[in-house]
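Honest question from a wet-lab person: if I give you the sequences of every part of a complex, can you actually get the arrangement of the whole thing, not just the pieces? Trying it with mine:
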Amino acid sequence: MAMTMILSPGALALVMSCVMGGVMGVILALFAGGKSSKVGDEMYIGGESERVLRKPLPSAVALYWGLVKRAMGKLYITLRDVVHSGRLNEWCAYMASWFLLLLLISIVVAVSIASVYSGW
Amino acid sequence: MNPVVVIVLGVVSALLFPGLVFLSALSFFSEWFLRKVVARMQSRMGPTYVGPAGLLQPLMDFMKLYLAKEVKIQRYSSPLQAKVGLAISIAALVAATLMLPLSPLRLSAPYDIIVFVYLCAVWVTVGIIVAALSYPNPLTVAGVSRLVALAAIVEPTWVAAIFVPITMCTALGSNPPFSVLATSLNSWRAWFSVPGFIAMALGLWSAVVSSQAKTMLKPFDIPEAEQELIAGHVTEFSGRILALYNLLHDMELAFSALVITYLFLGGPYPYGHLSPVGIAILIAKYVIVLFVLVTIRACMGRLRIDQAISAVMKYGMLPAIAGLAIAIAMLLR
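Yes, you can. This is the full assembly:
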């Protein structure tokens, strides 16, 4: 039979931390040792020598923000080229698509909330 | 309640069922299922020779890496750091399993979803990053950058998705409130009203999308992109460290499918855990969820990192927020 224990949130966090620690200990004991190569191998850069690293490389932070800017870039370009083009009809066409989406979402949410209150 | 019995049950739950041993076995099964189904969809055989229908192939692959292959010690590496990082991630998943009804010792608390999120979304990601950075390498750094960029969107999406059934069940009076255990036992009730159905369907959709990205299956496998980054953050892993990483990868897949099975599909509902029909239904639901994830993986090509982030935001984050809004409206009623 299963045993259910309802603890306080703090006690649960403590128990879970202990469980995590115990399981970590078991895993580290099981995976300790084993075969290993000699110390001092070069890093594997697709067959290139480590000398290639003397060339300037982007930092991890620069790579991260590069990816985020690239992902958000489309939004910026859309805002710049469509919304702020200076032509009123383009602005209206862009906003109309969003208004339709907002209208659709508001209908779904309104119907859902109305159904909640009417007890469907 | 005898404290000795509780401790023994806790150790058995953490190490055997549904802990380390069971979760590892489930992970190997999930990997076999993934490889077999994807292979059949691509007119290949898949694992065939080891065990019935190749069922033991993932275990043999693991044992080969564990026993026969050597760990490559690189000039700047710290293999112990890699093992600690991966052990943190696996231990977090194992601990979180004790909060599901599958465990003989079920642990719960009011608002325990916070602890659950802390284990599954925070520790798992932190552990992988710690492990990846233990082998300094430009390819690893590029892989970690992509991993972090994706995780910054995927983890909040996954959390928002699982908050939908949690909030719904709390709104329906499950006790303790915002509890993973109470939600797992009552989530089937949330489907039987119009707003509940809409919210749960949106949450389920979002959970599938975010699980696909969380487990780095196609189309979201860009952090490990072969050909381009060799293997991204996994480039220099070998021997026992690679065995541990592969186990973690499979375990994330198995755990994600298990969470969807319980929090959205009600586990063995309409039967209990101890009835044979209930167990059969639980297994069937798990395999169906796994099949959906595997089919998406087989059908889609890899997205670029910016495409992957946009896809998770569009097809994961927005449905989760819409579902959560409905669930919160039900809670505030």
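Two things worth pointing out. Chain A touches chain B through 59 residues (CB under 8 Å). DSSP finds three helices and one strand in chain A.
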